[in-house]
Every structure is written in C-alpha cells, then in structure tokens.
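yo, YARHG domain-containing protein is done. seq:
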Amino acid sequence: MRKMVDVVLIFILCTVFACNANAQYFGSEKIPKEIIEPWIEDSIQQYQAVYKFGFSEGECEMTIIINDDLIIAQTSEYEWSNEFNRFVSTYSNFSNVKIEGNKFFSDQTDGEFVFIENDNGSTAYLLIYDPWTYEFHEGGELGKIMGDSQELYCNGKFPQASLTLLSDSDLEKLTLHELKVMRNEIFARYSYKFKLGGEMDKYFKSQDWYLPYSDSANLTELEIRNIALIKKAESKKKE
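structure:
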C-alpha cells in the first residue's frame, strides 16, 4: 500500500511539473506555450525598452539599454516604506549581458524576446526562464513591453547621462555647474542622500521628482563610464 501511495504521489508531482513546463506566466496568468512566437528583429536595438514583470506587491520593471556593444539590464523592484508611506524602488544590475538573435543571456538568468498573439494583435514580451520575482514559476515568466520600444525616460535635466554613452563633444558646451548637476543627477535618480544642507542636497530637494532615502546607488556600467567622463570634463573646466 505504501508503495502504491508513493507511486501516485510521484505521478502527481511529475504531472504538475510537466504542466508548468508547458506554460509561462504573465503576472498570475498562465500563458500556453503554443501561442508564444519568437520576436525576431534585424537590429537588437529594437529590444531596448522597459519590461513589466510580476503583479501586485511583487511587481517590478526591467530596463534594457543598448549602446553598441554595451548592453545594460537593470531591475527596479518596489518595497513599502513606512517612513514615506509609499513604495520605494530598489535596483539590481545584471552582469555580462548579451543578446544574440532574439535570445537574452546574463550571469543571473537567460531568456528570449517573444510575441503573444491575441484577438487585438500581437504584444511583445521578454520571457525570463529563471524569474527573480518572489513567485517562482517553473515554466518562466513574461515581462510585457511598456510603451514604445526604444523610448526610455529618466527624471532630471540630463536624462541622457543614464541612457546613452556620452562623448567629449556632448559635454564641452556645458558649464561647470551643469556638469556637476549632470553627474550628481545620476545618483539622485537612485534616491541617493546628499550631504545635508549641501549644494546638491538643496538643489535636488527643490526638484519634485527627488525622494532621498538611500545611502548608496547601484550604478550601471554605462553610468559609471559617464561619471568618469563628466569628471574629466569638470577638471578641464577648472584649469
């Protein structure tokens, strides 16, 4: 009798995992594998976008930024802050990101860019094989593209410092003060807390988008490179 129970239990578990393997999830909704098609583009630039994963308190966004051979993949997740009585963002960066064809690769997880057909046409998604959201789904999780592909948005006067690799020519016409604001604005977008009462603290607290709550900033490789270039331009202005 015990052996029969064990066999039945193994059969049930295998059936559950087999079903999960044939379905992916968008939020809490199961998506049949049969209606998912590869999203193929001539240029990987078309995959630059923000993708929304999860649902409710587990919702998060993944931003993919493509600058030639440098590909950035960063997630922003939300957690409740009693201090501010609202959700605040925490950021994580993926390492060694590559896109080959419609396939996504990184040290943390892999995936692929796909379309899902429905009555209203097709919608673009990023399918992640090993989701990082707290609801782990055996078949993978789908992140829906938000807005138009390639159109990314950042708060601040100089959003390009977080979205594209800058060049010397981009900076040469800016004043020393503008360069300083551009550099520190990168940190401010991560809600970094500047020295209380200092110039940057006062400046960013006058901006309605700024909410200081973090002692650190999880910078992308693109932002790190741009900060180094901005500092170089600042040094030249001081000579």
